[in-house]
């Protein structure tokens, strides 16, 4: 009778999947994301990960797919402003909750395409409401830029301490007059960035309303 221990059948470990690996990547964070860090978090080998992702770029794509797949879709009812506002906040939260995701989207085209696909669904919803296709693309692009810029800032600010924020404001101001002026910047640098972002989004949406083509005013702008 053989005393050789039984060998595990070849193939992926039963508990591993692309989705589980993506969740681990999100938990690690995009600023520190490596195959090694994900393998360590999952107590898995690199070989086990490679059965589901081909390299770090593919790992990023899997994580972004997971994030975007969890975003709420544009509402089926409501006016154009509600549609754009919902779309903006969905993406804003993704960027705010995941510092560094904006950088990997710039660096990895396949990951960027995942977000573009989500944006296309927003454009289609605007067209269904009555927006001219060209203006629907422009409006969606504007709110996506807002979400990336403002949400990315929120993620960075949230990672900073209150003392670091106060020190940054102090260094930026040399006298009392500037200190008073920069007092208004406290909202932009607050760890609770959403109220400031809401003010910015309102300005963005007001601008879209003010510049909507005349053919859309009666059917879409409320």
Automatic annotation (TrEMBL):
Keywords: DNA-binding, Transcription, Transcription regulation. The keyword Transcription regulation applies. Transmembrane segments: none annotated. InterPro entries: Homeodomain-like_sf, HTH-type_TetR-like_transc_reg, Tet_transcr_reg_TetR-rel_C_sf. GO terms for molecular function: DNA-binding transcription factor activity; transcription cis-regulatory region binding. This is DNA-binding transcriptional regulator, AcrR family. It comes from Allokutzneria albata (Kibdelosporangium albatum).
């Amino acid at each position: 009778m053989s005393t050789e221990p039984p060998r595990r059948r070849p193939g992926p470990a039963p508990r591993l999947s692309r989705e589980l690996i993506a969740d681990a990547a999100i938990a690690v964070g995009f600023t520190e994301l490596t195959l090694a860090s994900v393998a360590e978090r999952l107590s898995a080998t690199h070989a086990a990960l490679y059965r589901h992702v081909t390299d770090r770029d593919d790992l990023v794509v899997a994580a972004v797919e997971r994030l975007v797949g969890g975003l709420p879709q544009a509402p089926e009812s409501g006016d154009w402003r509600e549609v754009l506002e919902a779309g903006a906040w969905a993406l804003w939260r993704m960027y705010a909750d995941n510092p560094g995701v904006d950088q990997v989207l710039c660096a990895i085209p396949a990951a960027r395409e995942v977000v573009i696909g989500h944006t296309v669904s927003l454009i289609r919803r605007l067209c269904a409401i009555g927006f001219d296709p060209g203006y629907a693309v422009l409006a969606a692009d504007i709110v996506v830029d807002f979400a990336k810029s403002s949400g990315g800032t929120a993620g960075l600010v949230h990672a900073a301490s209150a003392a670091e924020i106060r020190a940054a404001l102090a260094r930026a101001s040399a006298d009392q007059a500037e200190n008073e002026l920069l007092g208004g910047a406290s909202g932009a640098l607050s760890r609770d960035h959403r109220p400031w972002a809401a003010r910015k989004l309102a300005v963005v949406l007001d601008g879209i309303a003010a510049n909507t083509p005349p053919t859309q005013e009666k059917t879409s702008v409320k």
